[in-house]
Amino acid sequence: MVEKTESVLMDMKETFNFNIVALTDVKNRRGQYTVKWKYNVGSTNSRWRKIALPTGRGVPGAVMKSGKTMVVQDISETEIAMSLFRYPILRMEHLKSFIAFPIWNDDEEVIGILLMGNRRERAFTDTEYKAIKQYVETTLRQQILKELMVNE
User: Fold this and answer.
1) Are strands 52-54 and 32-41 parallel, antiparallel or unpaired?
2) Which segments within the chain are labelled E, that is strand?
3) Mind listing the pLDDT tens digit for each residue in 14-58?
4) Which of the two residues, 56 and 87, has the higher pLDDT score?
5) Do residues 29 and 17 make contact, with C-beta atoms less than 8 angstroms apart?
6) Contact 79, 70 (CB under 8 A)
7) CA spacing 20 to 30 A to 87: which of 47, 59, 64, 126?
8) Can you state the percent helix, strand and coil of the chain, rounding each to 5?
9) Are 45 and 22 in contact (CB under 8 A)?
């Protein structure tokens, strides 16, 4: 099943022209949520495997906390650039732009955070955004739900 999820992420990377596509796992221990990168396609190193963030920290923690998609076309024009140390995946991968989606289960709980990033600034058109969102909903989300059912 792991190969299938990585294949979906690789397909997303190639189809939508991103440098990296990464997906977190979400752990809930007594109401304390922690996100940790589970897959990363296109990474330049393996340091991402050691990153674990509580709700509210880093890109996945911020998306987890808000439950909303985060789109940044140029990090240098945001507050993120002033505190890049708080966003380890962006710093380690030298990302300049990204889209991060919460992945929801049928019980309306966030079960993962998807990060798609580029090492250059990138403007995302509405058409691109809608196509990515559609792919996330119809393909990636279904694959993650299948993976969770197999692992239960």
Assistant:
1) antiparallel
2) 20-29, 32-41, 52-54, 70-72, 97-104, 110-118
3) 999 999 999 998 888 887 888 899 999 999 989 999 998 888 889
4) 87
5) no
6) no
7) 126
8) 45, 30, 25
9) no
